Amino acid sequence: MSGDSTAPSAVTLDPSREPIVVVDDLYITYRVYGGSAGKGNAVTALGRVVRGKKRPSMKEVRAIQGLSFVAYRGDAIGVIGTNGSGKSTLLKAIAGLLPPERGGVYTNGQPSLLGVNAALMNDLTGERNIVLGCLAMGMTPEQVKQKYDEIVKFAGLKEGFIQLPMRAYSSGMGSRLRFAIAASKSHDVLLIDEALATGDAKFRRKSAKKIDELRGEAGAVFLVAHQLDSIKEMCNRVLWIDEGTLVMDGDTDTVVDAYTEATGK
Ligand SMILES: Nc1ncnc2c1ncn2[C@@H]1O[C@H](COP(=O)(O)OP(=O)(O)OP(=O)(O)O)[C@@H](O)[C@H]1O
Q1: Test site for ligand 1: of 85, 97, 117, most ligand atoms within 8 A of the Cβ
Q2: 55: which DSSP letter?
Q3: Residue 107: how many other CB atoms lie within 10 Å
Q4: I want to staple 113 with a disulfide (CB 3.0 to 4.6 A). Which of 95, 216, 226, 251 is the partner?
């Protein structure tokens, strides 16, 4: 190392393993425009341009600040950190949903983000959501038919609920169905953001087993969860991030123990 504090944090590759995700000196910044100049719609913006006024005040939130690591085939990586440390931002960046300010994310294959707000339609029945969700993941109608029963069984909803609109589901039921849909297909890179948080202990055990299977077929799995138990059950490796920087990257027990000691959680 040169000792230059602005030098990018380098990624080191293990040549004996297949890299699936490379995050290289990644910076993500959100820009939030202040409210003092009125709402930011097109009319007010045009008015400002006509009157030669400046843009409303803008605040930058540096959510990820120079993060680097490599995920290899078969890795199940837990991402931990306190509220606002940048976990969800990192997953969205890996999914390609946020442009890097600097640095880059390279994935070998298609990333799929399964989040608490994964796009299921509240007014449609569970049944319709399964069909639409599977089609959206690229399955053919024939494949959807083959997978349908397995998804319903895995979600394990109470009798009859699959025919009800999803707005009648509890948050736990919704997250079970979301997970069941996502897990019905193997993914190159599967990103799970708190989607299992509302499941009960039995469902979490079932999910842990499923994630293990997916790890076998998938490239890599990432899991953001506040319950360290889920991370311990499901992950072989953990990234601890704080204020958008990497505090520790290592095997699950070592990192979770260090995190618990540092934060008292
Ligand atoms: N859409 C957004 N616009 C502006 N700032 C944002 C946006 N989303 C997140 N942030 C900010 O970016 C930082 C990281 O947020 P992020 O949601 O990634 O954290 P997190 O670790 O997932 O938090 P939590 O554990 O509370 O879910 C925080 O300071 C947050 O306020």
Answers
A1: 85
A2: P
A3: 19
A4: 95
| Interval between CA 39 and ligand 1 midpoint (Å) | 22
Predicted confidence (pLDDT) at residue 116 exceeds the cutoff of 60: no
Place of tokens 């997970």: 179
Q: Which residues pair with 189 in a beta bridge?
A: 111, 220
Give CA–CA dist 238/249, Å, rounded. Answer: 6
Burial 189-207, CB ≥16 within 10 A → b, else e: bbbbbbbbbebeeebbebb
CA dihedral 123, 198, 246, 232 (to 10 degrees): -140
Q: Which ligand 1 atom sits closest to the C-alpha of 224?
A: 22
Burial of 74 (0-12, 13-18, 19+ CB in 10 A): middle
Q: Where are the beta strands (DSSP E) in 101-171?
A: 102-107, 111-115
The pTM assigned to this predicted structure is: 0.82
Helices (H) and strands (E) in the chain, counts: 8, 9
Spacing, Cα 226 to ligand 1 middle (Å): 14
Q: How far apart are CA 22 and CA 226, in angstroms?
A: 24
